[in-house]
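Box 3.1. Reading complex inputs
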Amino acid sequence: MPYKFRYTLGTHVDMNQYTRTGMFITLEGIEGVGKTTNIQYISEWLTARDIKHVVTREPGGTPLSEDIRSLLLGSQTEEIMPMTELFLVFASRNQHLEQLIKPSLANATWVLCDRFTDASYAYQGAGRGISNTTIECLESIAQQKMQPDLTIIFDLPVVDGIRRARGRSAPDRFEQEDLSFFDRVRENYLLRAKRFSKRCKIIDASKPLKDVQAQLNRILLKFMDQE
Ligand code: Z5A
């Protein structure tokens, strides 16, 4: 999917100093749940309300971070070790935060991001077995205390997500994992939704698209009300 990179190159924004004037919304879930489809719906929803925003994704979102994405998703001649994978994900995230996310939020531009750090807890944590303490350590280096304002978790049984994703394109390196890997990932998302219930909202992604978008509409209206 083509992502447009509209960001201020080289603008360093100190996380503790800047005033956040845009909202940060992230979309999460296992593969095939409809994040890519629905991020476009949210973008149109915001455009209809004249809310300036950028649509981006992780891993990725800047040219360098997209290069790291290619390393992570492509097939490699050697096995990528779990900790290497975690470092690559956070290297990509740090670049993305500094080059696109923070400058946008400081400039009254909302950021809509397809996956963020919850994915690291789900995939590298629950999926690969890296401890939360290790991930929290990198999270605090890259983000300090910064968190999304709203995280929408699309939930769907693993077999349905895989069926939808496989109907669309050939499996990438993550998509070649077995069902138990994705069961752990899904379970972790649901756990995090409970633990961070103020920030995380679950969508039943098994419903037809129009029902999914009706759920999204309700979540977004409520979110706007609270701002
Ligand atoms: N990763 C990680 O390990 N650690 C991290 O910290 C981060 C990421 C940030 C890339 O993610 C990989 O990076 C990801 C985890 C890892 N790997 N996996 N798996 P990605 O987001 O780019 O790739 P993905 O999760 O595989 O996304 P996807 O396959 O593109 O799925 P999606 O965007 O959620 O779904 P979609 O493309 O919108 O929809 C899939 C199909 O279903 C499509 O044909 C739609 O038309 C259809 N669809 C959508 N909604 C519906 C409904 N409601 N009903 C019926 N059909 C539907």
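In summary: Strands lie at 24-28, 53-57, 110-114, 150-155, 200-204.
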